[in-house]
Structures are given as structure tokens and as C-alpha cells.
Amino acid sequence: MKVRLGPVPFVYPIPIVLAGADVQGKPNFATLGDCGVMGIKPALVYVSLGQNHYTTQGILEHGTYSVNFPPTRLLSVTDYCGIVSGRQVDKSGLFETFYGELGTAPMIRECPVNLECRVVKEFSIQHRHVFVGEVVQAHVDEAFVSQRDGRRVIADMTQLDPIIYALDNRYYRIGEPIGVGYREGKALQAEGE
Amino acid sequence: MKVRLGPVPFVYPIPIVLAGADVQGKPNFATLGDCGVMGIKPALVYVSLGQNHYTTQGILEHGTYSVNFPPTRLLSVTDYCGIVSGRQVDKSGLFETFYGELGTAPMIRECPVNLECRVVKEFSIQHRHVFVGEVVQAHVDEAFVSQRDGRRVIADMTQLDPIIYALDNRYYRIGEPIGVGYREGKALQAEGE
After folding, report:
1. What is the pLDDT of residue A169?
2. What does each C-alpha distance from B101 to A86, A118, B45, B107 come to in angstroms?
3. Which residues of B touch A2 (CB under 8 A)?
4. Taking burial as the number of CB atoms within 10 A of a residue's CB, which of A57, A115, B34, B74 is the most buried?
């Protein structure tokens, strides 16, 4: 039996990211889960923020933002960045920040993966402002990059150790790998042919 | 040291969902990871599909779609739904389907959580079609719903057992809970006051 829980956006799992932008000349970071992929080639990634969010102001000003993926050892400071606003608290000293090609999208060195994004589309919907960005560069800690079959590949998620969230308001760790994309269904495909 | 891996949309973790739509009078389901939350109240959830995808045709026709979250025991058939197109294979018999309030968004009974969505915004970007839907109803297996402090709450992700993905092309299981939202950063907040 199914129970109706009403209009709840219960997508799971949700990635926890720190969205970065320069606001009034300083790096600021907002914790959010409303982030995802919209395209692969070209690489499109969105973030959805409150229209009055401090970070929103910086993205609107520069047309750029970063997406940073905190590992679980940064749980406290990541949660903190979701509790306090950059309007009240200067978050620029919480992390070691660096810039890439865009020059206005501050990134967090302590996060193993950082995406530098240029806004290519934006819109307001209800009380949100949604930015769709084209990833111009992905920066990854060299410890998590290796060579396989002549190509550079990234470590699996158990090493990247992301903070994961769901609308039950809990944070989770990633579990073990259980399969490979476009391979687990091959047997069913063969049956059908 | 950071290594530059180029314009890769390396968001992680990625939720694996089965997007459902009626196409030419039959339920069809597409496996995708390009799905996420855009707003809480009202509840907004997007899916991004190829413009020529079979499922895209059904969503355009009815203005509705569903988002279904397969548990890991459905890994093979979920991967299969990402390999084959509804144009070639009739996927309507792969699952037990049901309809909710919208009447045209087929949902999968075997998935513990199903979201029924009405399209409130759509746009093309590059070779994708993005649908932003308002969740009109969340359907959850009663086994995963309980009462706590007089409110209905949903089981944690270790019980829902979602299929998780990353751009390393691997599937993963969820790990253990490690904290509570808006609580883990309270100590840092108190320090700052």
C-alpha cells in the first residue's frame, strides 16, 4: 500500500555542496542540496538559491559561481555555512580559497572536487533564483586522479567521501560500489533480442 | 595540488531515478541521474532529458511526469531502462504501474517513493529539454512511513536503499547516517556569537 504524503520534493540522495561566489569583494559560500547535472556535453550544472540569499547577489553580479564538494570531515563547518548568512558572518576565512580561469568564482582547496561555472541561463521561479552554469573547468586533488588505459580517471566515491543528504534532514556517508553503468542491464537486453 | 580535468559536470552523488511518462498510450520509463530539487515550498523537481528521447515526447504531450526511486534490488532492470529506448522496447510490462491524481503520470509500485509532477516550466538548452515540475503528490510505501511526535516521517535512506551514481560510471549503495541538518554546525555558530 502507498501512503500519500502531500507535495513534498522527496528526491534522494541529495548532494551537499558549497556554492561559492564573490560578494562585495569577498568569497562567500552557501551550503545547498539543490544542485545537479543538466547536461554532459556541454557540461551543465545548476544551483537553486533563495532570491534574497547573499550568494545570489554575488552570482548575479559576476555571472559566475563555483560548486565545491565537502568531504565528511568538513561536516560541522559545512552545516554551519547552511545555518548562517554571509550578511551576518564573514565566511571568507573558513576555508583556503583559490581562483581558476574565471577569476571571480572562489573555490575551496579542502574540497577534493571543485567546479568553476559560467552562468548561461537563469530564471526566477516562485521565491527561488535558478542559475544554470556551463562548467568551464573541473579542479580535482591530484591524490584522487589516476591513469587507467591511458586516460585520467577520478577515484571512486568511497575515497571522495561526500556528505549526502535527504529530506529526512539527515546526513549520510556513501556506501560501497555495487555495479557499473550500462553493464548491469546487458543480460536483460540480450534476453530481449 | 589540483589537477584540471576539463569541462566535466562532476556532481556527486547523483540520484538514479526512473522518470515515467505515458507515451503513445503506454507507460514508459527512462533511467536518468539528471534530476534534483529546485524548491521546497512549493515543491519543485526537475528532470533533464535528450530532446529526442522517447520519454520527452510523452511529457510534452501530457505536461506531467513521475519520478520513481528504485531500490538496489532493481539495479539490473534500472540499468536496462537506461540502455534501451521505449522506441525499440515496450517497457510497460517491466514494472507494476499505477496512477495518482494527475492520471497521466505512470508510477512504479516496486519503488518505495514516487513523485507525481505537473510541468510548470520547461526550456531547451543545448541538446537537452529540461522540465521543472511541481510535485502534486508524493506516494510512499506504508512500510517506510511512521509516526514521530504526531507527524508522519519517512524512513532513513539505509532502509529506502537507493541506487546512487557518479560520473565514474559506478553505482553505489548508501552508507550510514552521520549527522542531522542544521545541528552539526551549531557549536561553530555559538563560538561566533
Report:
1. 94
2. 41, 39, 17, 11
3. 98, 109, 114, 139-142
4. A115
